[in-house]
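Regression report. Comparing outputs from two consecutive submissions.

Submission 1:
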Amino acid sequence: METSEISGRIPVGISSCLIGEKVRFDGGHKNNAYIVQTLGLFFAFRPFCPEVDIGLGIPREPIRLVERDGQLRCVGTRDPALDVTEALVDCADRQRGWQQDIFGYILKKDSPSCGMERVKVYEKNMPSRAGAGIFAARMMASFPDLPVEEEGRLGDPVLRENFVQRVFIYWRWHEAVAAQPSWSRLTRFHARHKLVLMSHDQNLARALGRELAAAADGDLAAYLPRYRSRLMAILSIRATRGNHVNVLQHIQGYLKTQLSADDKRELADSIEHYRQGLLPLIVPITLLRHFFRLHPHPYIEDSHYLHPHPRELMLLNSL
């Protein structure tokens, strides 16, 4: 994805404290410089704090997740009678209007309201990291295809690239298919993302391609939600070095008659060194971009694999 293809920033939901808003229980914030200064160049953040929305105030008594009689409840740490479980569920339901118009969500880790996973759940004052924030869980259940990540996990280069890639593809789905549905637009969308899907799971990518071919000319409106769910499920699988190597070698085949012996050797060596972990993914990608500028191929030019997101994010440099 070239930066020039983006018409404005992509709407993304976010826990308010992560962009510096002083909404924490202690009146503080958890401003995240990478999110604000880097992702903020491409994402238009929609901040929201469910704890403030339900009227807990700033500052406020901290809340936590507890298990009571087999049920997960969100209660005060000092006053167990303060139970905001239903209030947080209702809050999530009230936000569906604007949440259906975003293309990703970044949540605050460990939060009993906003945590995506591994939130502490107390049973008889003994914690286990087995829960998800009440608001976050309800939101994710309402929008199962929406790319969601926690700010803490964005420090992992693989998870960071995976999340950003999913946001851009979810946004492209809306722009290219959902806004003006047609079988031809869906088929082209799939073709442009086929190599990206192959880098995540080759078998599932092939299966989705066969399913799309079999469904063509059927009930488009009925098939679109199924395709989108399958698409996002495949993308949620972490891309592996081995799958990337297979895709790179596949792309290399489109240059077999154009390159000199020395160029072929240089490209093959860069892919092999990436396979061995000696080079980051950006090196063979950059070399392929160079060769395809000299020897254009319509399928590769149309594919998003070599340009999955803006280069300024430098997400391929650490993979």
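Submission 2:
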Amino acid sequence: MILAPASQSDVSAATGEADVIVIGAGPAGLTAAVELAEAGKRVIVLEKDPQYVGGIARTVVYKGYRFDIGGHRFFSKSAEVTDWWKRRLASEFISVKRLSRIFYRGKFFDYPLRAANALFGLGVFTSAMCFLSYLQARLFPIHPEKSFADWVTNRFGRRLFSIFFKTYTEKVWGMPCEEISADWAAQRIKGLSLLKVILAALLPRKSGDANAPVIKTLIDTFEYPRLGPGMMWEKTRDDIVALGSEVRMAEEVTAINRKGNEVESITVRDSAGTVRELFGKQFIVSMPLREAVLAIDPPLSPGVLDAARRLRYRDFLTVALVVRGTDLFPDNWIYVHDPTVKLGRIQNFNNWSPAMVPDPTTTCLGLEYFCFEGDDLWSADDAALIELGKKELEQLGLVRADLVIEGTVVRMEKSYPVYGPGYQDDLAIIRKELSALTNLQPVGRNGMHKYNNQDHSMMTALLAARNIQGESFDLWRVNTDAEYHEEGEDDKPVGRLVPTRIG
């Protein structure tokens, strides 16, 4: 069931100001809004999408089938964020066993690695060559480690890098691994190496051993809302409205109007093309940083505008297919490492939550394709993309095309902020000038151009709400695990990394 948009009412200079205007109804924007509404502030949330809240963490509904955009595990090292989730949805969480595998040359490979599975999957000869390649990498490591390829090769060997890392990474980011900086690998798969994977497989942590080390990449269970992640953000939206504030759908921000160092109002255009101005006292912005900077009027300095224009994004689309039959595979998701198909990852939503699939004799699959807005994939019509998905599933030997009943396509622009060449310098320029705007705070993944997880985005929003209530936190120092560090160098970049080209 698709929940109806919240009711709307006009706010203008004549009828009174909002205490806080929040741009964007993703996890960050809604988290900040509900915190402030609970504190007695009058909040207006403006969302460009005409129907869904939650941003990339939405749950799309198609003929009763609910599917996630990208797959959102509810796992955090922040007890505060975890408690926030539980307080919001109470008993609606289910515990899900995490199973994700790599699909390569028609075979599944367990992740984390299991010796027998790898041996029989790759074959004795290839396995032996992989081990020799690993030994060679340990004896003669690449120095200095400049690229993603260098970093992974040093820890897994050249052959395993080619099998289990290269193809998928290049699909996701649209650039060769040899051109991706090593710093991304160092954080993205921090603490993981072939030796540690083997030890994790041979010496699993005993139940109840809370002190035993867990490799971050290998978390084996997680919690998930029964009806998908959108359930969390639909409930948050409803809570905001119940508190007397508003969530306005189909409201596109066209200008952020300032007078000197203070933002005074927001210019919005609704779905009918009507343009109006909304006045507020404080402003929280989770729209893409590039668009936010370029929307400020009067414009910021030419150097800041140039820096904003250089920010880039990787886009994403999901082809959701309803398939006749069940138990197609036990995985939550599968990484497709076959270079002969464009498909990057497959989600099986029956294995996330059976409640998301209305017909128990069917399966809902989410086929994920990574692209750039305007390229051939992005621009293809829905029917062609559905046919592509059916064809590639059959080509991989996973699902016969004639078992697909129907499908739909969801495009998500600016899903991944890209750390392109010089992005840190550009962010520093933008941050410095934005900091002069005393009543505006950027939050979240796109709002800060940081590849955040959901919990990390939420933490930036929680702190932004506290700043409005009199505290003083630097949101840019929220780290990758959604924890806040009081200590550390102010100019040290923190956050979940995204590939950046070398040089």
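Expected: both submissions complete independently.
Actual: both completed, but the second showed a warning that disappeared on reload.
Relevant detail on submission 2: DSSP finds 16 helices and 19 strands in the chain.
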